[in-house]
Amino acid sequence: MKSVTVIGASLAGLYAARALRSQGFDGRLTIVGDEHHRPYDRPPLSKDFLTGTTGQDQLALADAEETAELDAEWLLGTRATGLDAGSRAVRLDTGRTLTTDGVVLATGAIPRRLPGPGSPPSGTHTLRTLEDARALRRDLTGGGPARVVVIGGGFIGAEVASSCAALGHHVTVVEAAPLPLVPQLGRDMAELCSRLHADHGVTLLTGTGVTQLHSAGVDDRVTAVELADGRLLPADAVVVGIGVRPATDWLADSGLPLDNGVRCDAGCATPIPSVVAVGDVANVNGTRAEHWTSATEQAATAARNLLAGRSVATHQGLPYFWSDQYGVRIQFAGRRLPGATPRILEGSPDDRSFLAGYERDGRTTAVLALNRPRPFMRLRRELARAAQPATT
Amino acid sequence: MIPVCHLDDLPVGESIRIDTAPPIAVFNADGELYAIDDTCTHQDASLADGWVEGCLVECPLHAASFDLRTGAPTCLPARRAVRTHPVTVENGMVYVHHAAEEGTAA
C-alpha cells in the first residue's frame, strides 16, 4: 500500500493516521478535514471549554513535533463530497479528486436538529464542533444571568446544563422520554443520575416534547420554547442536544453499505477491504459506538487490517464512556444486558458517590460509578479481562 | 517538605493525593515510593485514582500511562510529562519535597 487518504481530521482520523505510521506505513498520507482546525479533543467542549477553564490551545490532540512526524498532507477546510469505493476515488469540494490505495472513513457524526422547516432562530445551538462551542460560549458570556433551555437530557444535554448552571444561568432541561439516559444506564441508575440536575438548581422537565421555538426581532432571536403540553418556556438561549446521526450523506452513491453508519465487519473493514471506517461513523459488527475510547481503539484495528488487505484483527474493546456533570464524574463500562439488575457495591446514591454492578444470572457484565474512579477502574479491568476470548 | 502520612497508611499498591497547589499524588509501587503531579497532562483526572502496575500508573479516565520514576508519558493520549517530586521517609513518616517549592527542575 503506497498511499492512504483519511477522511476526517478528527480523534478517530488522527489515531488512524498515527496507527498507520506506527505500524510501518511509510507511503503518502493525506488527511482531509472539513473544519479548519487540526484534530482537537471534543469532550471538553461541553464542559471546561464552555465554562472557560480550558482554552483552545489545550484541546489540540497533537503538538507540532508529532504533526511533523506524521508526515501527512493536510487538506483542512475541505469537505469530501463523494467516494467511489471500488476505485477509492474521493471527490473534494475543491473540485480535486484523490485516488489512493487505501481510504479511512472518519467523518464522525452530525447533531440532529429539531424537525421543522427553515433554519432555527438565532440563539439556538447544537454542540459538536469548536465553532459550535465558541458560538454557544459567546451567547453564555455576553451578559448577566440568562434563561437557557436545553432540549434533550442525554449526556451532552446534561453536561451543557451543568456548565450553564456553573456560569450562573437559569437552566431548564427538557426531555421527551419519561426519564433521560435510560437506554444507556437502565431505569434505576438513570433515575439516580437525573437527580443531579435538581441538586444544582436545574429544572428537569420530562415526558414532553418540543413543538416549536418562538422568536422575535430583526435578528429572529429565540424567545421561548413551546412544549407539546402547551407550556411556554421563556428562553434567551436554546441548546439542542437530541443525539447525532452518522455523517454518511456524502457516501450515498459510494457503493458502500450504509446502515446506521458505514457497515463494517468486526475489523472495521467495509466489504471493500481497502476502505475502512472508524469512530462515530462506523457501524462495527452491528454496533455504532459514539465513545472517545472506541474511536481510538478502532483506529489501531482498522489500520492493521487496511495494511494487511483483509481483516486479520478485530476490535473487542470493552465499551467505556464517561461524563462530567455538576462536579460528578460518571463512568460506565461493559455491556448492560437486558434484564440485568444494578446492585450498589459500595458508596451511597444519596452521597452521589457509588459503584454499581449490573448483574444477570450471577454475572457482572457492566459497571457504573459516580465519583468512584478507583474502584471503577479495578472493576472495569476485571470485566475487560473476563471479556477476552480464552487463548491457549 | 510536606508531610504526607505514616508509611503504614500507604501500603504497597496504594496511593494518596495531597492537596498542594497543584495537587501531588504519592504512590507505593512494590515498596518504592514515588510522587508526581496528580493531574493527568491530558485531561482533568487524578492520577492518585489510577491503576499502578510496576513503575507505571494508568490514568483512570483515558488510560494514558506515566512512568512514576520519570513522570514521562509512556503512551497516548498524554503527550507531556508530569513533574516528579522527591519522597523521603523519616521516623515512619512520608514526606514529599515539592520540586517547584525548592526551585529544582522537574
UniProtKB/TrEMBL annotation, chain A:
<protein>
    <submittedName>
        <fullName>Pyridine nucleotide-disulfide oxidoreductase</fullName>
    </submittedName>
</protein>
<feature type="domain" description="Reductase C-terminal">
    <location>
        <begin position="320"/>
        <end position="390"/>
    </location>
</feature>
<dbReference type="Pfam" id="PF14759">
    <property type="entry name" value="Reductase_C"/>
</dbReference>
<keyword id="KW-0274">FAD</keyword>
<keyword id="KW-0285">Flavoprotein</keyword>
<dbReference type="InterPro" id="IPR050446">
    <property type="entry name" value="FAD-oxidoreductase/Apoptosis"/>
</dbReference>
<feature type="domain" description="FAD/NAD(P)-binding">
    <location>
        <begin position="3"/>
        <end position="299"/>
    </location>
</feature>
<dbReference type="InterPro" id="IPR028202">
    <property type="entry name" value="Reductase_C"/>
</dbReference>
<dbReference type="InterPro" id="IPR036188">
    <property type="entry name" value="FAD/NAD-bd_sf"/>
</dbReference>
<dbReference type="Pfam" id="PF07992">
    <property type="entry name" value="Pyr_redox_2"/>
</dbReference>
<dbReference type="InterPro" id="IPR016156">
    <property type="entry name" value="FAD/NAD-linked_Rdtase_dimer_sf"/>
</dbReference>
<keyword id="KW-0560">Oxidoreductase</keyword>
<dbReference type="InterPro" id="IPR023753">
    <property type="entry name" value="FAD/NAD-binding_dom"/>
</dbReference>
TrEMBL record, chain B:
<dbReference type="GO" id="GO:0051213">
    <property type="term" value="F:dioxygenase activity"/>
</dbReference>
<protein>
    <submittedName>
        <fullName>Bifunctional 3-phenylpropionate/cinnamic acid dioxygenase ferredoxin subunit</fullName>
    </submittedName>
</protein>
<keyword id="KW-0479">Metal-binding</keyword>
<keyword id="KW-0223">Dioxygenase</keyword>
<feature type="domain" description="Rieske">
    <location>
        <begin position="2"/>
        <end position="96"/>
    </location>
</feature>
<dbReference type="InterPro" id="IPR036922">
    <property type="entry name" value="Rieske_2Fe-2S_sf"/>
</dbReference>
<dbReference type="Pfam" id="PF00355">
    <property type="entry name" value="Rieske"/>
</dbReference>
<keyword id="KW-0001">2Fe-2S</keyword>
<dbReference type="InterPro" id="IPR017941">
    <property type="entry name" value="Rieske_2Fe-2S"/>
</dbReference>
<keyword id="KW-0411">Iron-sulfur</keyword>
<keyword id="KW-0560">Oxidoreductase</keyword>
<keyword id="KW-0408">Iron</keyword>
